[in-house]
Amino acid sequence: MDDQSFPERRRKERVAADIGLDCRIPAQPSKARILDLSHEGCRIELGATQHAERGATILLDIPNGDRVKGQVMWVRRREAGVRFSRQLASPTAVFLGIEEPVETQVVVTPAAEEQGGLLHHWFRRISKIF
User: What is the pTM of this model?
Assistant: First the structure.
């Protein structure tokens, strides 16, 4: 079959990847590789002994410790398309390289420094001593 027989239905552009991970389809643990991904799904290459069927539930153990649940949408040879049950959480998307980390800035106010520093300030707030 050529690629024209499968119309493009993705809502988000996928980013090329090469990420090894463990997966379970439905409960059989196996190694797999993410070949491309977006916030809503991915294409994986299954291990030599792994078999997937369209519609099966899949669990992907992301190397950062997150577990992503999805559904197998298509299977061709040893590759499968997965639609995630929920959009990837931001920390997972940052870890996988499809989202830029949010830059946070800590601002020290002069009032907090005058009263014994930030630790003293937060201790008072936590213990509700004003």
Answer: 0.69
**Residues 78, 46 contacting (CB under 8 angstroms):** yes
- Closest listed residue to residue 60, CA positions, set 17, 11, 7, 12: 17
Domain holding 19, by residue range, is: 3-96
Q: pLDDT (tens digit, 9 = 90+) per residue, 104-129?
A: 777 766 654 555 566 666 666 677 65
Summarised one tens digit per residue, pLDDT across range 24-68 is 997 788 899 999 999 999 999 998 888 889 999 999 999 999 999
- Burial category of 88 from C-beta neighbours within 10 Å (exposed 0-12, middle 13-18, buried 19 and up): buried
Task: Read off the CATH number of the domain in which 39 is found.
Answer: 2.40.10.220
Smallest Cα–Cα separation from 61: which of 80, 35, 34?
A: 34
